[in-house]
Design a protein that fits this description.
single chain; alpha/beta; Rossmann fold; 7-stranded parallel beta sheet; 20 helices; DEAD/DEAH_box_helicase_dom; RNA helicase activity; RNA strand annealing activity
């Protein structure tokens, strides 16, 4: 791979501008795409997020522009305002001092102000499909000199229902224009569009295209649905990231989620498509400058954002598919940096994590929050061989726990040999007769009578009485014994039967 931009036929002045920004060597996607674009080829470029796709098309485009021709020569179509402004900022840095002008045409901003800026005759425009088409219909923008059209985050542009707008823009350009499609994921549904509009397209898949960056750590936490907000709070308190993006799927509940996160003490603002341009600029400026720690965003609003300080991505709601997971994860770990992606899911959503792991071929590690730390989840004990669903226990230990006796040395200690509801000195253990020299032999009724102060003669007379018998022929004392023995171990029940037969 080339180690210098000059070896890719990039002019020295642009290479110098990159070095001033600390960019010395081209990335794989830049090394593959730049020569093809300079040759005028149609290109479908796919690469991981954060690998330098913007420079891969921006560098050759500005180098091909003619500063003497005061006409629109290149158009870059983007899905969101933030991505448009981000690309425009890159173009302004590259074109500084060259006489080239870059302008944005994005929705949410004042149309008249943008129309006034067009009077400066920009050579390159970055815009959203709806606003570009609107200006074309007003005949304030001409496509007759456009030689290159770029669609960045192409899958998202077409997924947002802008396909008709984009294709109308294509039709307004010359037939021999150059088309460039860039994205981290290019679904199979794009193939029909590629065949319809491109001429002998060159496909580029740099690195692990369509996959998350290898420098990322993928974690997930399982909790109840109602505890997700509090789980975000605990994660932020535990990791304390410098900057983190929290993703949600429910646009209608953005304000509610922000209020709940702020209520639990988190520093957070929201970024969403319905907000005005000034509001979105305020939020992004504040987040980049570190005025607040968390940015709550939706998939659309965050597409393509490049914020180097983002160390963590938290999925409050799981993304709808693996491709969206890739784009969310790409907000951290950019250009080889380390990053952490944490997904919060309920028990019934747990299978989605397995699907992502299989589709992306990356390990997802489950974590739990305990005592202010992130720990490994407790593993259930395995049943012993031959056990029926649980580990085989110690009969003596079971007997102590259930109150049915224990080691011989413990039997005469206070509190031992009692069942629930039995009394000390009753002469029974677990409902079984016990020979005890301290108490006269007899039924439990004898002891109760003696304890109640009844005369010994009367108690002795009661011995000869026959116990009441129920309809099944069982004596009342037998039923009582059976009831108390109901939860006893099998070996103890057998012993009771043997003692009874003796």
């Amino acid at each position: 791979m080339p180690d210098r931009f000059e070896s890719l036929s990039i002019q020295a002045n642009y290479a110098q501008k990159l070095r001033e920004r600390g960019i010395e060597e081209p990335t794989p996607i830049q090394a593959e795409a730049i020569p093809l674009i300079l040759e005028g080829k149609d290109v479908v470029a796919q690469s991981q997020t954060g690998t330098g796709k913007t420079l891969a098309f921006a560098l050759p485009i500005v180098q091909k522009l003619d500063p003497e021709l005061k006409k629109l020569q290149a158009l870059i179509i983007v899905p969101t305002q933030e991505l448009g402004m981000q690309i425009a900022a890159v173009l302004e840095e590259l074109t500084a001092g060259t006489g080239l002008i870059a302008q944005t045409l994005i929705g949410g901003a004042a149309l008249q102000r943008q129309l006034d800026k067009l009077k400066l005759h920009p050579q390159v425009v970055v815009g959203t499909p709806g606003r570009v088409l609107e200006v074309l219909k007003l005949r304030k923008l001409s496509m007759h000199h456009v030689r290159t059209i770029v669609v960045d985050e192409v899958d998202q542009v077409f997924a947002l229902g802008a396909m008709n707008d984009v294709e109308t823009i294509f039709k307004s350009a010359l037939r021999d224009r150059q088309l460039l499609f860039f994205s981290a994921t290019v679904p199979d549904t794009m193939e029909a569009v590629i065949k319809r509009w491109m001429r002998e397209p060159q496909y580029i898949k740099a690195g692990s295209a369509g996959k998350a960056a290898g420098t990322l750590e993928h974690l997930f936490v399982v909790c109840e649905e109602r505890n997700k907000i509090d789980t975000v709070r605990r994660l932020v308190r535990t990791y304390n990231p410098r900057s983190a993006i929290v993703f949600t799927n429910e646009i209608d509940k953005l304000a509610e989620v922000v209020a709940k996160l702020q209520y639990v003490g988190l520093s957070v603002e929201a970024l969403y498509g319905e907000a005005g341009k000034q509001e979105r600029e305020r939020v992004m400026k504040g987040f980049r400058s570190g005025r607040f720690q968390l940015l709550l965003a939706t998939d659309v609003a965050s597409r393509g954002l490049d914020i180097p300080d983002v160390t963590h991505v938290i999925n409050l709601d799981l993304p709808i598919d693996a491709d969206h997971y890739v784009h969310r994860a790409g907000r951290t770990g950019r250009m080889g940096r380390a990053g952490t992606v944490i997904s919060i899911c309920s028990l019934r959503e747990r299978f989605i994590i397995d699907k992502f792991a299989k589709a992306l071929n990356v390990p997802f590690v489950q974590k739990e929050l305990f005592g202010g730390s992130v720990v490994e989840p407790a593993r259930p004990k395995k049943p012993a061989p031959g056990g029926a669903g649980r580990a085989r226990s110690n009969p003596a230990a079971d007997a102590r726990v259930s109150g049915l006796g224990g080691p011989e040395g413990d039997r005469d200690k206070p509190g031992h040999g009692r069942t629930n509801g039995s009394r000390p000195g009753s002469g029974r253990e677990g409902g079984l007769e016990r020979n005890d020299s301290r108490k006269p032999a007899g039924s439990a009724g004898d002891v109760r009578q003696a304890a109640a102060g009844r005369p010994a003669a009367k108690a002795g007379a009661d011995k000869g009485r026959t116990a009441p018998v129920n309809g099944t022929g069982k004596a009342k004392s037998d039923r009582e014994r059976d009831r108390k023995n109901k939860g006893a171990p099998r070996w103890l029940k057998d012993k009771a039967e043997q003692d009874k037969q003796k």
